[in-house]
Amino acid sequence: MSPNNPVTDDNGVTSRDAVTATPVADKSSLVKPKSKQQQNKSAKPKIDKLFVYDASLGVGPATAIRDSFYKGAKLEPITTWSDLVTVLSRYSEIKTLVLDTHSIPGNLLIDGNSPSTDDQKNRLTATAVQVTGRIIFEGCSIMGDPATTAKLVSGITGPSASVTGYTFFSVVDSITVELIGDEDEEGIKTALEPFKQYLLPGNPSAKSLAGKSGPVDLYRRWFRRDLDETSPENETDQRAIKQRSDMTDVRVRTAEDAERVRSEYQSPVEPAYIVTIEDVQAVKAE
Questions:
Q1: pLDDT (mean) for 121-128
Q2: Which of 32, 154, 170, 199 is least surrounded by Cβ atoms within 10 Å, i.e. has the fewest?
């Protein structure tokens, strides 16, 4: 038996009015309007790499670190917590977020102000941004407490995002090279020899400086166990100073891993670690 045709079959509906007037179920309740947060997020741009730095640290050091490790990242200066929230709120997604500010174990320190971890977390979460790849803290010793650091950023990290930072203090300074225009590449290399160990790789090369005249600032960086800006050449205990390449990479995947790092950080001899949290939700403090 063929299926009924509601227009031509005798046992079907033969009235055109009956066919066209059949009420259609109201589906309006199935279409949910977007929330204001969803609308704002969909309207915001995404960015591949964003480098946010404390303006009090200077654009020169920030640019040197950016050019050394995060080429192409957009530089954004901040001076207050409100500035940080404003900058992050501009984006729906950030693949790589670099935060170069003052910090203490587990928390940021901006404009001399370090609110409670819950307060800091809430401020960041309110931006509605999601970091999909990496958050890197370029400031001092934030990974002395990985669990608290994980909590700090837990509201803005995507499910596969990692978080990286240091257990040591970070120190950046500059040296000024006075060029008169007749120096060649080898001459410049010789002049920089005493300083080259800590020069950032993003500085202009000796080759690019050859034949130029005028002052040029070059930036160098090292890490210390203590908050001390003594330059490497004046330091009597060279064991207290590390290059980035001297530090040990440590992966934190569990709360137990985080507690081990925190305990080691509090020991008499602090470890020189670059800590990467690979599972923020599993590691974060409650």
A1: 98
A2: 32
